[in-house]
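Input record, target 12 of the design panel.
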């Protein structure tokens, strides 16, 4: 029996996880679910956004299904106690270095994109983001007093840091993913300015020699941000570092019509992963029953495919999501009039019925 750690988290995380669980239950795969608190909910219960018991539950599971963490109520806490530290801690403790963020435009949602339908129609790209290095984890970092022209003042500093082995392993993951797609990888960096990016580019080129059937190109991150808006269909697989990937994947999400549609997978070297929608906790709509659960349901499909070894079940879930979109079901983030406007539970009902 495969075990799934279920970490709903905060805000709409509680609501969307319920719908993903319903879909997984409908498949009747014999999965064992173990739920644990994380983020602000865990801080309220145990004084820590990632309690030792939650981390242990995640470590013992075959996969982790994650909701979202964060709420302005916790902004006054010390950084180490804020809800967002939970997801950073899970990535680091579990070695989840490879983040897969697909951005796919369903035909029924092309008109919902912020770009013209003909620009995004048929879009299907994969952003592979390195997840455990870069400026988010580099040391030293902090805030300190420093003398300046007007006397002492505070300055903040962070260290962008990548080792050769970290770059090599994420590049290998991207090339292997591209082999199963259109065999094109665009490596995104800022090698004209940053020493870290210069090393990144050198190592990616070296690793590409092991994948001669995959076409490699390079692009500066500022140009990539522009090209995603100008001509997104030129890309197949984009591989980049932690900070650049964070920004670019959120930009790519808006090409699809709504951030509420995008799943993600964060994998370790053995394929164990944490699966979550890329959106946040949306405290403004939490508890109202209007959040879009499809990104979480699609994240569960990715979990079935990558960590639980059931591609057939993953295909079923993805076909069910496409079916409900064809039938006209839309949550508020996707609704443009003339469709069946539904809430969180009703969208879950529709996917379960389609299954």
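The sequence produced for target 12 reads:
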């Amino acid at each position: 029996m495969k075990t799934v750690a279920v970490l709903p988290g905060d805000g709409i995380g509680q609501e969307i996880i319920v719908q993903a669980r319903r879909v997984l239950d409908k498949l009747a795969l014999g999965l064992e679910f173990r739920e644990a608190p994380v983020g602000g909910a865990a801080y309220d219960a145990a004084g820590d956004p990632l309690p030792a018991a939650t981390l242990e539950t995640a470590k013992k599971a075959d996969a982790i299904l994650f909701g979202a963490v964060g709420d302005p109520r916790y902004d006054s806490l010390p950084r180490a106690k804020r809800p967002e530290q939970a997801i950073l801690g899970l990535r680091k403790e579990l070695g989840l270095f490879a983040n897969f963020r697909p951005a796919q435009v369903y035909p029924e949602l092309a008109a919902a994109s912020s770009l013209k339908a003909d620009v995004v129609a048929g879009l299907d790209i994969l952003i592979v983001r390195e997840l455990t290095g870069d400026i988010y984890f580099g040391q030293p970092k902090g805030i300190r007093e420093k003398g300046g022209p007007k006397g002492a003042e505070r300055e903040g500093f962070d260290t962008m840091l990548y080792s050769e082995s970290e770059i090599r392993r994420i590049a290998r993951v991207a090339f292997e993913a591209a082999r199963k797609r259109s065999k094109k990888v665009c490596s995104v960096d800022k090698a004209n300015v940053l020493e870290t990016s210069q090393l990144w580019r050198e190592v990616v080129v070296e690793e590409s020699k092991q994948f001669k059937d995959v076409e490699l190109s390079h692009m500066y991150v500022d140009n990539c941000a522009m090209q995603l808006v100008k001509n997104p269909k030129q890309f197949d697989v984009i591989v980049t570092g932690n900070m650049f990937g964070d920004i670019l994947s959120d930009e790519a999400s808006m090409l699809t019509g709504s951030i509420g549609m995008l799943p993600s997978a964060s994998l370790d070297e053995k394929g164990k992963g944490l699966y979550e929608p890329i959106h946040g906790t949306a405290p403004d709509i939490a508890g109202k029953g209007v959040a879009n659960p499809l990104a979480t349901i699609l994240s569960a499909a990715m979990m079935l495919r990558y960590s639980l070894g059931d591609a057939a079940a993953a295909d079923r879930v993805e076909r069910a999501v496409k079916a409900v979109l064809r039938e006209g079901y839309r949550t508020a983030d996707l609704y443009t009039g003339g469709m069946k406007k539904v809430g969180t539970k009703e969208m879950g009902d529709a996917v379960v019925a389609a299954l």
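DSSP finds twelve helices and 14 strands in the chain.
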